[in-house]
């Protein structure tokens, strides 16, 4: 039997899937998980396309969105806007 490596980017093929994935990571993950998730979404959409929308180079995007990276908040906001996302804050229930 042959197996292939699982890549979440292969399944992020609609705005709804992307939003659900990002919201799940925001609820359950930490900041490093969020950075990696945004990287997966950018990969699914296409790094070249995201690079054009953000004005960043592809290598800079890969570096900023890699596991263990600590990008500036401005970079995260640029990429979120480029992938069609936004951050909404709602009160936490007690």
Automatic annotation (TrEMBL):
CDD domains: HTH_XRE. It comes from the Bacteria. InterPro entries: Cro/C1-type_HTH, HI1420, Lambda_DNA-bd_dom_sf. This is Addiction module antidote protein. The lineage of its organism: Bacteria, Pseudomonadati, Bacteroidota, Flavobacteriia, Flavobacteriales.
